[in-house]
Amino acid sequence: STGTPKAVMQRDGNVLAHALTYARRLRLGPGDHVPLLARVTFDAAVMDLFGCLLTGATLHIVDPIRDAGRLRHELAALRPTVLHCTPSLFRHLLSGSAAEPEDERAPLPTVRAVVLGGEEVRGSDVDRFFGHFPGAQLVNGLGPTECTVALQHLASAADRDRPSLPVGHPVPGVEIRLLDEGGTPTALFGEIEIVSDRVAAGYWNRDEETAGAFGVDERGRAR
């Protein structure tokens, strides 16, 4: 973000919908093992924490602040089925020293899904994903704190040739519109407007900024 961090007030229903969307998209279940690679104070942890609680999946708390080789070996011992992290951490995980064989840098054969978010996903990331995780699914998501996860994109081999991945399509219960400077819907470029019951309650103790960013659309829906 380029702005000053603000406390966002979320409702319990928003968090539940967020976790359910994540769990259903990945088909989480009791047989899954999910390492928690985000701090619990970071909003990216919400989907893993509550997604596992809702489905009976096993959550493993892991400290990602270590060298790539040590992190990979710790993850391999957990036999994870889902990896959720930022693209930067994903690249770190797949990095290695020149003395380490490329095919041994990601000994994670149990992974069936990788979820990336929080920053741009490059075509080169997709290429490395398919090289290290054949048969797995790659999901790119966009979820501003004001509305948890709003868009998801399921990557394919064709995405290798893109400079960066699209953020995808709206998840169920979310409508996305692009608005020009006058607030009129436009087709190509504009400010993203999210229309959904999952929009946050506003910014904590920032009434003026809440009034400027939140409201209702012409049909009375939260945006």
Automatic annotation (TrEMBL):
Gene Ontology MF term list: phosphopantetheine binding
Coiled-coil portions: none
Organism placement in taxonomy: Bacteria, Bacillati, Actinomycetota, Actinomycetes, Micromonosporales
Natural source organism: Actinoplanes sp. MN07-A0369
Protein name: Nonribosomal peptide synthetase
Domain of life of the source: Bacteria
Single GO cellular component term: cytosol
Pfam families xref list: AMP-binding
One Gene Ontology term from the biological process aspect of the record: secondary metabolite biosynthetic process
